[in-house]
Amino acid sequence: MKYIEPHAHMVSRVTDDYERMAVAGCVAVCEPAFWAGYDRSAPAGFADYFCQLTEHEPKRAAKFGLKHFCWLCINSKEAEDVKLAAEVIALVPEFLGRPNVLGVGEIGLNKNSRNELQVLEMQIELAATHRQLILVHTPHLEDKWKGTRLILDALKNDRRIRPERVIIDHVEEHTIGMVLDAGMWAGMTLYPQTKCTPARAIDMLETYAGERLWLNSACDWGVSDPLAVPKTALEMKRRGHLAAAIDKVVYQNPRKFLSQSAHFKNAF
Amino acid sequence: MNRQQVLDLYFLDARHQLVELAAFLDRMERAGGPEDFRMRHFRSALAALEGRKRDRARKVLLAFSDLTTQPVARAETKGACGAPRGAERGRR
After folding, report:
1. Which of B10, B72, B79 sits opposite A112 (nearest CB)?
2. Which ipTM score applies to this complex?
């Protein structure tokens, strides 16, 4: 079985994880820009991070035959400081042409504040201006339902944004319907305690017929599992799903969405 | 899958999680001091499990959700605790 890991924070993972993913059938890994676990003090810290994502990580992945792609932005956890966010957003365009960049992400909301929303709108503008795909982070736990609604409203307010070019990540049972109804793609994140288990993700796949859906691990510096996607594929097999249905969700669907990026399409 | 297959695949795990839940509630009973807002939401979520209704996972998640619709003035923290503090107004 081959699969694409559409959301993993590999800068926080050891090199052994690349090897384990490759052995499990991973052919490409996509890394959204996110919070490092601490706040960066200046835009230069983000510039260095963008270089890491576009120069260093592709080389580390290539040692195991994996293609590495990334998304660039300022994440919502560092978006309360609007001035800093504006300076970071101004850095992004110079990186968008690099060959492994897929688009703007993971933008979104964290605590659903006014400043976060303002920064989200600035980054939607960035994506629209540069005709980029968008990957969206939705808030955690009690903030997810409200945040998902605010994010969808912000995206719908910009008529240049085509819903089929947006993936809303970290959906759960109470948000997946509104995302798919909006015509966007939905990502189900297999993450201990705070997001989906494999069983629940497969329940949603069965309920929503697997269209415009993908699975990801979002493995990062927290307790998380870089092999969550292939483990969920195994769970699908245990439930009796056919190989073609598994292939669709772990390989064909992410490939279909991501192929809207010329950089991804050129590499596959 | 039919119901027999679901039971064969998931019953032991669901049983395990139910016992863990019961033990958590016993632990709360044994402990002293006041509860906070999280247990209110927890009991509301438990009510969503009753009866032969579908959509329980969605209802449980909604019981733990901030259902207000306006952005907050400022992000005072980065983390989430699993239940909304003082967001009762928007409940439905």
Report:
1. B72
2. 0.95
